[in-house]
Specification:
Rossmann fold; alpha/beta; six-stranded parallel sheet; 17% strand; 16 helices
Length: 375
Amino acid sequence: MNKIKVLHIIKSLGRGGAEMLLPETLKIHTTSKFEFHYIYFLPWKDQMVSSLEEAGGKVTCFSASNNIKLLQQYSRVIDYCKTNTIDIIHCHLPWAGFLGRLVFAKTKVPVVYTEHNMQERYHIATKKINQFTFNSQSLALGVSEDVTNSIKNNINPKIPVKTLLNGANTDTFRRDPDLGIKIKRELSISKDALVIGNVAVFRFQKRLVEWLQVFKKIETKNPNVYGIIVGAGPLEEEIIQELKRLKLEKKVKFTGLQTDVKPYFSAMDIFMMSSSFEGLPIALLEAMSMECAVVSTDAGGIKEVIRDEQDGLMCKIGEWEKLSGLCQVLIDDPEKLLELKKAARERAVNSFSLKRMVDSLEDIYGSLVSEGVKE
């Protein structure tokens, strides 16, 4: 039996949540039945390329400096599909989705689109193009019920829209205390310090300026608390300025982009998110799998993952200042901190494992190919 050839199309392969899922899912896909190809367009955002290639993926960059030039690559993508006899195209995020729909219109190769964000959060032009083109594909997947409902409410699509919750590779994302100690040493953090962390692209919805303000309140009362923020992004200069204004240069450590975040999760005791909106953040699921206690706003899909007081502690999006008090509860009660660390891991393993997500994707791919054969 020939392998089903799946082509993933995504704008970049930098360290974003959607991008990071690709090598993680590839590691546990049934490669005896499926062959995976990847096309991306921003050559300077290639942090995930080596991980994909090491896992057996075939990666190609069709360089495009802006979104219009990205769409103009559709004929090259069509040629790629014909040359490599691609059976399924799986697109991630809007502009890759728009291109995939152009290819679908020309070739009728089944196209699956995964939506990671709420429609309300997109630029009006992106929303309009999404509405106009959405039915020119086979199936859409929302990464949370919030995202799926947003698609239905804003687009009212005629194609099927299903929810497929994101997952974390709970087999590989396991806490390693030795690695945590090593990272603390490298970052000049004392071995017995409590660490509050975050892993994020530096975009406005992550509210990292507010994150630093919350941390300042915590640190003022608790001198042996440190912060670690892993990531980079367009708001980096603004965030660093706030770090300096708050005089936190010695207490919050910025690591930049990291291909392997597991050592940093191993150093964190509390994973704190101050987001104003989310789909279903991969970093949250990875942190939970790594036994980080979660303190977060209830943005988007986060409230589908965290059951307040059971798997973590949450506050309303507009009440982000309460995050400092929630962290203080765990600082003052080490037993509760340990309890929520274990609960986070248990929740990730039982309800958000990547294996569950991959099995569902393979069923979807197989069904679409079978439907095409029948036609």
